[in-house]
Amino acid sequence: MITGQVLEVGGMNNALSRALFESEVNALNSARLLELRNWAINEMAFPVLDITFCKPSRNSFRVRLLCNEWNERPPSIEFLSAAGTYLVKAPSGSGVLHQGPHPNTQRPFVCTPGTLEYHTHPSHLQDFWDNYKGKSGFDLGGLLTQIWKAWKITND
After folding, report:
1. Does residue 3 sit within a domain?
2. Which of 66, 87, 141, 147 is the most buried (most CB within 10 A)?
3. Higher per-residue confidence, 72 vs 1
4. What is the rounded average pLDDT of the residues 115-119?
């Protein structure tokens, strides 16, 4: 082994994964964007992107994207309480925010292309991430926007 060699993770160079992640999250770290969407950043350090969606007179909704092998694999997405504990129920009224449980996590999940839970669900095993990877709307900001829009139409 060559000294200083970067280890491969899931077929993708870990340094490249980190660089792509950081490039995409830096674009999200705009005070204007965060203010317009009422998003609060809880954590933004590779491989975690943790955002709370807020809206007056609504319960806030916190999502944590785990991007360990971004973008060789889609992010895993967790629903959290404001305190950071796992939610046992997703906000209702959106087909994207699925009550679950997901067979792998036993928790509610995001059921839309571009998420690990979608692509590993038995109903979607033939809908490969490679069909979406690199396309408009399937970067980290695009995925967050899809989840945020789904949350905005929920009843909770």
Report:
1. no
2. 147
3. 72
4. 96
CB 64 within 8 A of CB 124: no
Helix orientation angle between 140-152 and 14-28, rounded to the nearest 10 degrees: 50
DSSP-derived letter for residue 88 is S
Structure tokens at 71: 């973008």
Q: Is the pLDDT of residue 102 over 50?
A: yes
What is the torsional sign of CA 22, 25, 27, 29? negative
The pLDDT of 122-141, averaged and rounded, is 95
Number of domains in the chain: 1
Question: H helices within the chain, ranges in order?
Answer: 14-28, 31-37, 116-119, 140-152
Q: By the 8 A CB rule, do 128 and 119 touch?
A: yes
pLDDT at 156 over 90: no
1 assigned to some structural domain:
no
Containing structural domain, residue 142 = 8-152
* Residue 14 falls inside a structural domain: yes
Task: Flag whether the pTM goes above 0.90.
Answer: no
120/100 Cα distance (integer angstroms): 13
Instruction: Give strand pairing partners of 39.
Output: 53
Tokens 């989840």 identify what position? 147
2 lies in some domain = no
